[in-house]
């Protein structure tokens, strides 16, 4: 089979790179910072794509028909320059640097763009797998030639790299109809279009930036049709939208298939570039080269493979930067480093976007959609660590703070965005941010971690004040003077005013005294006015769980006492000076109706506390903790003092130096009452239960299976008559209550059994395949567990082993599993084998942990 062919045509961009002149052999020359500047021309567009796709190994499966260097020799003049890039060495200490990054980009407006195509007869290129067309933001002076290429080539796919303005022009009008096939028919399904999210934003599409992947996807679904001029773009078969080097949306506008999101779970848009060399030119071109490499295969799934390869190629370029080309001693694209041995990036997760539900107003969570029950995920986080448990869902790290809760992620990143914008230019007054949350939710810790994360790399001074301890206005003025001293020393003050909402003469009495510094950046002390300069003020509430609750009196009717008091304290004026706020949710349930993520927030905190308090529990990445203890720690309704109470429960437990966190290590119920409802906690440890209605229904089903299996054992009429007299064989409503409760306990044990085989039960999770049957080895494990559970329950109630039966509570199968007759093993086996069939009857399914999200 011959090598597959790629035809490349379209715009070539010339980029002038300025860089410090090399030393050569002059050993006495000045360091690079003081040297003269050199300029080199580097190709972009079609020229760069041709070079990238041509430098694959010779045994690669495709052959490239692009633009040769000699075709471009007469187009190096200033007339064809599209941008000027000032390059600086990555390592400032090297006299002869080899890696460069972009310090400044200057685009040249209204430059000429010419159409370039392979200098061969297009009809001679038989069965090309791909036609790659590169558009120009300046349009083309020779567009007729471009249209002719599209009309004469018969590719498997037509890949189009867009340029602004989007969705207009003669070239787009030709491209959007799809490639011509061998039968002379336009094939709309074979059109793939690459566009940057920033270009969509520039065209008026409101796409959030650097908040959460769910928010970006929701904005895309809800806003993509808002610009009627882009309708031909939105309805094309395959629209590939790049969100920097961190995410991609594949929108299929022709058949209405839900779009698909590809994303880095640990980063938001823009974070990969920021964490490496900063802004880099050519990333979309590198992505397009990788996408083309996948498309040439032409088989089912080639677009997805192309997206993954494009993602990997763009990241390689962003990470590598420009390297010195030995041929001319100047910075150049590291072509081979970008495409050599290109493989999909394993960090790239994917999920189908529920567009139909989003258009109805649904707030989407990737974590819930891909992994199911938050309580089971929480157990996994504590036991095997957050990296393994949450590796395929979005998470965010801010210093030592980690969260997987979408609401928290978006709140914290909103503050990061505010801080980044504030730090980007000169400022004369402080940036003011409110921080709210329940008592003990970790507000101060979260504020510090987010602030330090945003200010990383800058000289900062951290100042913390407890406003409730201020006795006079002089105390506040002294605090402002300390802030000013830090500013004058050249550091950025990060200031945390804890309990800013404390009373001072009146309720919320300190608010009015913050107003002038917040509004003007100035304060008075002993009759003199001073400038504060740039600073970041975090106002941390001690009384309000949310900003909405703090601002609530504004909406009260006139004459309402609380409204009047709020206005008297200058509450509305204080709010007007805030540039943002964050609600810190903490480890407890914020709202029983909507907050399903609290076990995960609690698990992340618990894991961190256990690693610090009892490192001996850790074996590799796994923490050894009894299931029942974990159930109590994660599922107790609330901790009296939030995170501090959780920390105190661990401090009261005897786990120092221990290899396992056992039940016996817990403090007494009376001691637990200091920080939790001790009885509720210990009930969760001793008797973990399903919801009442659910356990009752499952228990009835389990009882039916048990009776059916027992009847299979009755081989003679005498056996059947004996069985009919057995009280265990009565109908559910006629069973002794002790037996019914035993069966309910069996239902309660299902989640524990499922965890033994790396599974969990949950309401239906879209896009995931449920477990319809256990493997033979899993059935052996589960059946033995059921027998052990049954034995333990009976022994606690003073049942004993043979030789006698009957009312003296003796049973022939109250013996170890290994000694049990096979027929009784089959009974236990039947009662666990049926679980995947029983649960769907009550709206639940079984899923394997850690297999969602692509």
Automatic annotation (TrEMBL):
User: What are the residue boundaries of the Ryanodine receptor Ryr domain, all occurrences included?
Assistant: 778-847
Instruction: Establish whether keyword Oxidoreductase is in the entry.
Output: no
**Which SUPFAM superfamilies does the annotation name?**
P-loop containing nucleoside triphosphate hydrolases (SSF52540)
InterPro entries tied to this protein: P-loop_NTPase, Ryanodine_rcpt
What Pfam families would the database entry show? Answer: RyR (PF02026)
Q: Kindly indicate whether the keyword Lipoprotein belongs to this entry.
A: no
Which parts form a coiled-coil structure per UniProt?
699-726
Q: Which UniProt keywords apply?
A: Coiled coil
Q: What is this protein called?
A: Ryanodine receptor Ryr domain-containing protein
Q: Which organism is it from?
A: Lepidopterella palustris CBS 459.81
């Amino acid at each position: 089979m011959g090598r597959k062919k790629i035809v490349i045509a379209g715009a070539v961009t010339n980029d002038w790179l300025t860089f410090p002149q090399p030393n050569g052999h002059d050993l006495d020359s000045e360091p690079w910072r003081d040297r003269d500047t050199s300029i080199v021309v580097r190709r972009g567009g079609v020229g760069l794509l041709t070079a990238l796709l041509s430098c694959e190994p010779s045994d690669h499966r495709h052959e490239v028909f692009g633009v040769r260097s000699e075709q471009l020799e007469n187009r190096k003049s200033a007339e064809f320059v599209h941008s000027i890039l000032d390059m600086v060495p990555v390592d400032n200490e090297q006299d002869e640097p080899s890696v460069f990054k972009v310090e400044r980009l200057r685009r040249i407006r209204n430059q000429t763009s010419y159409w370039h195509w392979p200098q061969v007869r297009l009809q001679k290129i038989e069965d090309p797998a791909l036609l790659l067309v590169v558009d120009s933001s300046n349009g083309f002076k020779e567009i007729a030639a471009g249209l002719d290429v599209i009309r004469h080539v018969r590719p498997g796919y037509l890949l189009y790299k867009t340029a602004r303005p989007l969705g207009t022009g003669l070239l787009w009008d030709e491209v959007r109809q799809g490639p011509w096939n061998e039968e002379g028919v336009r094939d709309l399904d074979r059109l793939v279009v690459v566009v940057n999210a920033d270009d969509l934003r520039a065209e008026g599409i409101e796409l959030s930036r650097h908040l959460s992947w769910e928010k970006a996807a929701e904005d895309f679904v809800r806003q993509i049709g808002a610009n009627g001029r882009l309708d031909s773009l939105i309805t094309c078969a395959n629209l590939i939208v790049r969100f920097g080097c961190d995410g991609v949306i594949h929108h299929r506008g022709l058949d209405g298939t839900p779009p698909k999101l590809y994303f880095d779970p640990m980063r938001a848009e823009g974070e990969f570039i920021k964490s490496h060399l900063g802004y880099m030119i050519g990333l979309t071109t590198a992505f397009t080269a990788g996408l083309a490499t996948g498309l040439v295969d032409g088989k089912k799934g080639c677009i997805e493979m192309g997206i993954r390869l494009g993602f990997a190629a763009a990241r390689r370029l962003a990470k590598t930067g420009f390297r010195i080309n030995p041929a001319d001693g100047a910075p150049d694209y590291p072509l081979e480093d970008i495409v050599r041995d290109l493989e999909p990036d394993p960090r790239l997760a994917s999920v189908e976007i529920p567009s139909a539900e989003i258009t109805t107003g649904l707030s989407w969570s990737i974590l819930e959609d891909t992994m199911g029950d938050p309580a089971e995920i929480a157990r996994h986080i504590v036991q095997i660590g957050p990296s393994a448990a949450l590796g395929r869902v979005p998470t965010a790290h801010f210093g030592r703070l980690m969260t997987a809760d979408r609401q928290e992620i978006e709140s914290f990143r909103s503050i990061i965005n505010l801080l980044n914008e504030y730090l980007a230019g000169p400022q004369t007054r402080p940036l003011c941010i409110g921080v709210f949350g329940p008592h003990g939710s970790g507000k101060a810790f979260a504020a510090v971690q987010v602030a330090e994360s945003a200010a990383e790399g800058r000289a900062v001074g951290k100042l913390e004040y407890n406003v409730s301890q201020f006795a006079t206005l002089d105390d506040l003025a002294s605090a402002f003077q300390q802030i000013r001293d830090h500013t004058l020393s050249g550091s950025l003050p990060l200031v945390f005013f804890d309990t800013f909402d404390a009373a001072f003469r009146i309720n919320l009495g300190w608010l009015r005294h913050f107003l002038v510094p917040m509004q003007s950046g100035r304060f008075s002390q002993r009759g003199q006015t001073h400038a504060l300069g740039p600073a970041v003020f975090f106002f941390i509430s001690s009384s309000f769980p949310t900003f909405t609750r703090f601002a609530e009196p504004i909406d009260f009717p006139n004459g309402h006492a609380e409204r009047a008091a709020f206005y008297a304290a200058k509450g509305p004026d204080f709010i007007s000076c805030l540039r943002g706020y964050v609600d810190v949710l903490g480890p407890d349930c914020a709202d029983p109706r909507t907050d399903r993520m609290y076990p995960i927030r609690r698990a992340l905190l618990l894991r961190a506390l256990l690693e610090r308090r009892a490192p001996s529990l850790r074996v590799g990445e796994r923490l050894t903790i009894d299931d029942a203890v974990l159930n109590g720690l994660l599922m107790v309704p609330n901790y009296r003092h939030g995170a501090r109470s959780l920390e105190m429960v661990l401090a009261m437990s005897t786990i120092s130096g221990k290899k396992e966190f056992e039940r016996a290590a817990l403090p007494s119920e009376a001691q637990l009452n200091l920080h939790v409802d001790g009885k509720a906690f210990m009930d969760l440890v001793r008797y973990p239960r399903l919801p009442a209605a659910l356990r009752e229904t499952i228990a009835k089903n389990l009882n039916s299976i048990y009776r059916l299996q027992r009847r299979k054992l009755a081989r003679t009429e005498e056996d059947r008559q004996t069985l009919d007299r057995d009280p265990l064989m009565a109908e559910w409503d006629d069973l002794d209550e002790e037996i019914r409760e035993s069966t309910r306990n069996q239902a309660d044990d299902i989640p524990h059994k499922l965890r033994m085989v790396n599974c969990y039960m949950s309401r239906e999770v879209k896009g995931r395949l449920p477990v319809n049957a256990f493997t033979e080895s899993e059935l052996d494990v589960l059946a033995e567990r059921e027998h052990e559970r049954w034995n333990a329950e009976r022994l606690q109630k003073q049942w004993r082993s043979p030789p006698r039966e009957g009312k003296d509570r003796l049973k022939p199968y109250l013996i170890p599993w290994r000694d049990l007759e096979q027929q009784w093993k089959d009974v236990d086996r039947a009662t666990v084998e049926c679980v995947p069939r029983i649960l769907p009857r009550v709206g639940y399914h079984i899923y394997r942990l850690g297999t969602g999200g692509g």
